[in-house]
Specification:
The protein has about 450 residues and is α/β, with parallel strands linked by helices. The protein has helices at about 1-20, 70-85, 100-105, 110-115, 130-135, 145-155, 160-170, 190-200, 200-210, 215-220, 220-245, 250-275, 280-290, 295-320, 320-335, 340-355, 355-370, 370-375, 380-385, 390-405, 410-420, 430-440, 450-455, and strands at about 25-35, 40-50, 55-65, 90-95, 125. The mean pLDDT is about 90.
């Protein structure tokens, strides 16, 4: 079994090597996690763009870090792999990482070492958008709501007998859900789902606690319930954004569009709260409907909720300022016939992607007056119709934009597969076998089974 998995993995790696040789540009994403045997594993995914503007995302390698995980250790491991595999570094466009100091430290981080190495080209660097969005969510606060909720859930679920009785009560009362969810800080969607489930079962939780003789004054407090409903709604909206940012094949265009839409929604929510309109807050609406005294509490708390929304919106503006520099380039590639200052666009494209500003400016003017291309401007594969020799500058910019990763989602997803493969029952799995198993598990390629079969003997002793 081991030999066959290894053979399939080798075949997949050969297919990747062939694509890497023929791709025009590529970007990578890196993240590090610890497996079940306490070995730090650095996952590296690659996104390649080809001459026809098609893209492919694939696991490049899984590198074990045996001792420390400093920026220099990550850099040395990646550089050694690139040299050993003869990866064409001149095609590298961008690196996306998480926000750990070992990755983005100004002086000793992985990116700093790459930029200081003459073998690496001038590259773009981005902090994972999903990680940043999760950090933005922390400014909401509302610990006076979250702490009691987690405490109550833990008290119900920590004892087996109590947990069983609670589930029977929910069944007898025909509750919307059959159980409460446990909260975990490290999962991005956890808080929103926990709060929604808790608010839906608030009446049942109150009755259960009263039957145990516990204090339920907090759960009957109108202001606190309103705060709980508001926090449920706002975390639900953040979860919706998070889900939009996740997934394979997500381009930077998709991610920037989702972020800009969310920022615009924040402004609308703020205006509605100032007018005490709860059109976009269904949980708050539900509390107002069920509790007559909640309207007075809302009058007092509306300003506080507005401040939370404004603070959240400002945090998004501050954290994603690096994407503001990329946005004009992405907007032009998405719509090359947009009515914007051509000189500004040419300067931004040339500065971002190391192009000749004068050449790019002339190409944009020529492209925008090309009647044949104008007729196909709505085509989904527009840039594959553009002559790469005649429009070499803007075509290169389009390819580089297509190669960009916006997040480290693929790495995070692969770590889930890694923990499933190298579980507590298989901790003696070697690093080489772990990489082979993971490649077979996550690869988008299909092994060439005929080639693999023909290369193997039925009896290994022959």
């Amino acid at each position: 079994m081991t030999r066959r998995v290894s053979a399939m993995s080798t075949n997949l790696a050969e297919q990747l090597d062939r694509d890497l040789a023929r791709c025009r540009w590529f970007s990578i994403q890196c993240d590090e996690s610890v497996d079940n045997s306490s070995t730090a594993q650095l996952s590296v995914f690659i996104r390649m763009v080809f001459a026809d503007l098609s893209t492919k995302e694939e696991l490049l390698t899984l590198l074990p870090l045996k001792t420390t995980t400093r920026g220099v250790d990550v850099y040395n491991a990646v550089k050694e792999f690139f040299v050993q595999k003869k990866v064409p570094l001149e095609k590298l466009v961008a690196v996306t990482t998480d926000g750990a100091p070992a990755m983005i430290g100004r002086h000793a981080g992985f990116i700093a070492h790459c930029k200081g190495d003459p073998d690496f080209p001038k590259l773009l660097h981005y902090h994972c958008i999903i990680h940043q969005q999760a950090l933005c969510a922390k400014v909401i606060g509302f610990e006076h709501v979250m702490t009691p909720v987690v405490k109550i859930i833990n008290s119900i679920r920590s004892k087996a007998k109590q947990h069983r009785i609670f589930k029977v009560l929910l069944e007898e009362m025909s509750a919307e859900y059959g159980d409460l969810l446990l909260h975990t800080e490290i999962r991005w969607l956890s808080r929103g789902r926990v709060l929604l489930r808790f608010l839906s079962l608030l009446g049942e939780i109150k009755e259960f606690m009263q039957s145990k003789g516990e204090d339920v004054s907090l759960l009957e407090d109108t202001e606190w319930t309103l705060d709980l409903a508001f926090l449920t709604d706002i975390t639900g909206k953040l979860n919706h954004l998070n889900c939009e940012l996740q997934g394979k094949g997500k381009t930077v265009v998709d991610m920037i569009s989702a972020l800009n839409a969310f920022k615009a929604k924040m402004n609308i929510f703020s205006v509605h709260l100032q007018r005490k309109k709860m059109l976009h807050f269904p949980s708050v609406q539900s509390v107002l409907k069920d509790n007559a005294s909640a309207s007075e509490a809302l009058d007092k708390n509306a300003e506080k909720y507005c401040q939370v929304i404004n603070r959240l919106g400002q945090e998004f503006e501050d954290r994603f300022c690096e994407l503001d520099q990329l946005e004009p380039c992405v907007s032009f590639i998405s719509n090359p016939f947009m009515n914007k200052d051509i000189t500004d666009i040419a300067e931004q494209l040339s500065a971002t992607f190391n192009l000749d500003a004068g050449q790019v400016e002339i190409e944009i003017v020529t492209l925008q007056n090309d009647l044949h291309l104008k007729a196909h401007q709505a085509a989904p594969n527009f840039w594959s119709l553009v002559d790469t020799e005649k429009y070499s500058g803007v075509s290169t910019a389009a390819m580089k934009v297509a190669s960009l990763f916006g997040s480290t989602y693929l790495c995070e997803s692969a770590f889930s597969d890694m923990n499933f493969i190298k579980n507590k029952h298989r901790t003696r799995l070697t690093d080489a076998h772990l990489q082979d198993s993971l490649r077979v598990a996550v690869s988008s390629y299909t092994p060439d089974y005929n080639t693999v079969v023909n290369s193997m003997q039925c009896q290994s002793s022959h």
